Amino acid sequence: MTQTDARTGSQAEAASSSDALRERMIAELIESGVLTDPAIEAAFRAVPREVFAPAGTPAELPYAINDVVETRFSNDGRILSSLSAPVMHAGNLHQARIQEGQRVLEIGSGGPNAAMLAHLVGPSGHVVSVDIDEGVTARTRAGLERLGLADRVEIVTVDAFEPLGRGLFDRIMVTVSPWSLPQTWVEQLAPDGILVVPLGIAPGLQRVIGLRKRDGRLISESTVPGGFVPLQGTGLFNPPSARLTGPSGKPVTFRFTSEVPEQFGVSDNVLASDPVEAWSGVTYENGTIWLDLLTFLLVQPGACSMEAEDPADRGSDKSFYPALVDGASFAALHRRPATDTTVEVGAIGKGPDAKRLTRHLADTIAWYGAAHRGTEPLFQWWPTSTEPGDVPPSVTVLPRPHGTLTLSWPVAEQL
User: Fold this and answer.
1) Once rounded to an integer, what is the mean pLDDT over residues 174-186?
2) SS3 85
3) What is the pLDDT of residues 96-110, one digit of tens each?
4) Which helix (H) or strand (E) is 17 found in, with range?
5) What domains can you pick out in the chain, each with its CATH number?
6) Active site residues per annotation
7) Single pTM value for the model
8) DSSP per-residue codes, 293-324
9) How far apart are CA 94 and CA 300, in angstroms?
10) Over the stretch 200-220, which tens digit does the pLDDT of each residue have?
11) Whose CA is closest to 69, among 122, 139, 121?
């Protein structure tokens, strides 16, 4: 056997392995219920994801449906860029409702998503993929050239908050998480177009929202869980925070949406005090994602994200990050077994006013469970050029640098 024969045989074996991994990934995505559109299925089948992965990446990793492939890091070890998990690509492409012949802008390049967009828009469509990191755009460009898709996808290295000068887009897909939606994105989106964005709702919480442009504002049509790297550049958001040390000796950080409250008085001594509990009566099946409950709690007055490397520093290893803070006291989300297959949600807190605060948080959970559980919140983005006007108390208003985000929950149907 010649060296050429050996090399050809090796390439054929690698291609066969890639095909098998792709088919297994597609089968798992279909079984999980996130892949239902034949056109998106065909796009997954057409794109060998390993083309965009760094050298040395295990062959199976780009096809593990729930795993990301980390590609670039900051000097302090934070992830700056990654290939999103296939399950996220499938869900977000479904939200975008891409049609053949459309113009699509991807903000946050990486490769696999841009390649699938190219297949979805077809030869008559066009994709522009932008990223602030030249290393990311170079890798994406090289991968698209290998796949013969460079003529359908324009790669641009730019801060996405800056005007792009490429006209209007039928769809904008954002694959990094911003805290605010700049006017440039709204202006570049065609009337009735769809923006899919993993928007930061509160520190530690993202929602991937499919927003339709209507009368100058954006109105949600779909939401799914999300976990994307933060947007870099002009739109980078570093939530104001207070960092303490828990009884374990590990850090405990309170992160806020605007500023650390002047009256914030939680201290290391408070963290070392005895906890107080309160319970809501609201139960969930084990393994359930409480996404809407977390969203509801994290936009309440006084809410913040309480990050503890050791959860017991909040009072119990069953505690969870949403918290309410008032002066020197806090209450965090808590859970305990209700049955063999369910958990009850409640609150655990510390500080001089912990009894009242934990009861308030537990009552808020109970109110959500009775009034809104099972409903999907409506998100609306009001650019600076528009105003939401007078809104009822049931609507949550979240001012942001480039506009206002409002959230409202329908009343749940009573069984």
Assistant:
1) 95
2) coil
3) 999 999 999 999 988
4) helix 3-32
5) 3-235 (3.40.50.150), 241-371 (no CATH)
6) 84
7) 0.89
8) HHHHHHTSTTEEEEEESSGGGGT-TT-EEEEE
9) 31
10) 999 989 999 999 999 989 999
11) 139
